[in-house]
Amino acid sequence: MKAKKVTLMLATFALAVALGAVAACSPSGASDLAETGGSDWDAVVAANPDDPYVASYEAEDPATLITMHKKLGNTCESCHDEEIASMVGTFDELVGPSEDTLATREFCLNDGCHSWEKIVDSTILDGDKTVYNPEGLYNVHDNHRGDVDCGQCHSMHGQPTLNCVQCHYMDLPEGWDGFE
pLDDT grade, residue 22 (50/70/90)? Predict the structure, then answer.
C-alpha cells in the first residue's frame, strides 16, 4: 500500500514536470500571459510594437532613462511584474508613474539599483549666482524641497523635467525639459 502511494506521487510529479515543460515550449504573447500566469517579456514586447512603452524601449533614444537602463542590461521585467505585462498593448500614450510602486524613492533606491549618496555627489548644476548662492551651484538632489519621489522629475519612458527651473535659473542638462 505504501509503495502504491509513493508510485502515485512520483507519477503525479512526473506528469506535472512534463506539463510544465510543454507549457514552457509553447508560443506565448500578451493574451497567453494572463492565462498561464507566467511572463515572457520578449513575446509581449514583440507582439505589441505600437504600445508607447514598448516603442520607447525599442527606440533607444538617448534622452530617455529606459535607453540607459537597457544599455546596462535591464529589461522590462527588471522593474515590472506579470500584472504590468498583461497591460502592455492597452496604452495609447504614456501615462504618469504609478504613485504606489514605480518611480518612488523606495523603489529606485533599493539595494540592487541606485545609491542616494552617489546620486547627490554627481548632480551639481550651474545656475544663477545670488546673495544666497554666490557660487551659483545647485544640487538638484540635495535641495530645500526635501525628499521627493524620483518620478517628480524623472520619466523612464519619456522626457525628464527639471522642476527646479520653475523658480531657479539653471542650465538644463541635455535631453531635459523645463518650465520656461
Answer: very low
Whole-angstrom CA distances from 142 to 99, 105, 114 are 22, 14, 15
| Domain-embedded: residue 128 | yes
What average pLDDT does the structure give for the chain?
76
Beta strands in the chain (DSSP E): 124-126, 137-139, 161-162, 177-178
CATH number for the domain harbouring residue 179: 1.10.1130
Q: Output the nine-digit C-alpha cell for 147.
A: 525628499
Instruction: State yes or no: pLDDT of 6 exceeds 80.
Output: no
156 part of a folded domain: yes
Report the 10 Å Cβ neighbour count for 122. 9
Which DSSP state fits 179?
-
Domains in the chain, number: 1
Convert the pLDDT of each residue in 53-76 to its tens digit: 999 999 999 888 899 999 999 999
